[in-house]
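Chain A, query sequence.
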Amino acid sequence: MTTTPAPVPGQISSPRRRWSPRRRARVVRGVQYAVAVAVLAAVALAIDWSAVGDNFFNWETVRQIAPTIPQAFLNTVQYTLAGFAVGLSLGTALALMRLSSVRVYRWVATAYIEFFRGIPALLVVISFGYAVPLAFGIQLGSVTLKAALALGMVSAAYIAETLRAGLQAVPRGQVEAARSLGMSHGRTLRSVVVPQAFRIVLPPMTNEFILLTKDTSLVFLLGLATDQFDLTRIGQNALNTAQGGLTPLFLIGACYLLITLPLGQLARYLEKRTGARSRS
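Chain A, predicted structure.
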């Protein structure tokens, strides 16, 4: 059995000092910064910077492939815009079919979405390059058209689900108000529901555009002429010919970032603006 020591007569016990929440948060934040700096310093010390300079940032290799970059950059943007146009058009139709009162439309839209979300985009691109012309006896001469159909059909499955969520997020009261003013179902859909749904889904739609930009790296499977090369194809060819190690890959990655980083900023801006409007 333990006993608590009795206080010594005449001795004043000091109260236990506790940190304020603000000071505790400041100390925790300082520890996190210290850990981050320590990890970065350890990584920086472990890297062989001379090998990195020769293999990843070889300026002679950059000078060799730089003339081909502008055309490949434009081709990549062109494939992305064409694919997004097809995906947005088809995705809008699929989203409306998913919410249709006609059961057959809902079944068709659901089957389409589940199918194209479940298979890799790689298989769809190869199919449009070789299987579709063989099965239907047609030749799609334009690479942009084949890329737009292949990438757009895959993207439409994701856009349809995003749009469906946006359509369902429109307050029911606004639909009822439009109908009470004498608007038909179709006019209510065109004038009230769809515009608001697009405003709601603008941020995730921007993310879909970014994903589509990266999916254009599969277009080379369609067989491209030199003036139709996308950025990824330029990087692959440079790896086989240039002497700068992996420099082409880093250069091509930087070109993709020039496209996707502004889009990411735009998505955050739209998300902030949409959130501010919804709170007001």
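Residues 247-279 form the longest helix (33 residues). DSSP finds twelve helices and no strands in the chain.
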